[in-house]
Each structure stands twice: as C-alpha cells, then as structure tokens.
Amino acid sequence: MKLAHEDRQKRINAKRTEIENRPNPNSKKIETCDLLVEYCLKLKVQAGLVPLTSEQVAVETQKNLIFEYNKQDIE
Description:
By secondary structure, this protein is mainly alpha-helical. The chain has three helices and no strands.
C-alpha cells in the first residue's frame, strides 16, 4: 500500500514538472498582441492623441525658444 502511494506521488510530481516546463501554447498570440499594442500606441502618438511627457514638452519648448531667438536675430 505504501509503495503504491509513493509511486503515485512520483507520477504526480513528474507530471507537475512536465506541465511547468512546457511552453505556453498561446505565446505566439501573446507576442502578436504585444506588437499590435505597440503599433497602436505609436499611431496614437503620431495622431496627437497621447499627452506629451514633461520631457517632450521641455524639448518642444526649447525648440520654440531657439526658433524665436533665431527669428529675432534675422529681423
């Protein structure tokens, strides 16, 4: 009886290990979804639907200031 219980536990542990080590069957679908999300976010940024980060605002402000200084120098 004890041997049958030990054998059963070994088989259960082997099956658990096998299940844990096999790759996710949906990994291709997950990868495709991740790529689509990245693409959609890129399109949203290009369309101006995403608010700018503080760093992007700083860069834009700096560009505008340089443009204004150059414009004043030309005049």
